Amino acid sequence: MTDRTEYIAGIRAFADWLENNPTVQEPGDQRLLLALSTNSAVEEFAAQHNLTVATDDEGNMSAELAFGPITYHAYGYVDFGQHVAAMNERRARKWAEEQGLEIRAAEVTA
What we know:
By secondary structure, the chain is α+β, with helices and mostly antiparallel strands. It contains three helices and four strands; from the N terminus they run H-E-H-E-E-E-H. The relative contact order is 0.11.
């Protein structure tokens, strides 16, 4: 089996399980996320599937394909490298704060 085949089989198995267990609540987040990293990849995906592209306040793009209440949410970033760097910095600062530490810029010596 390929990863894609296994993924599709997993979705079908989950749907069957959910249908056979009516007392179980459905998941709160009904989005399947498709990380495309770049805005241009989102635009290409949207064009292939005749979807509208949305842009957030930071210029990051997304497009959604709905299957009833479930949404296939494709998203990308203006600058993926910058996004990852900012996310890593936030995590590092949060960890440092939890440890009672402070992150400061290194002193430059001439």
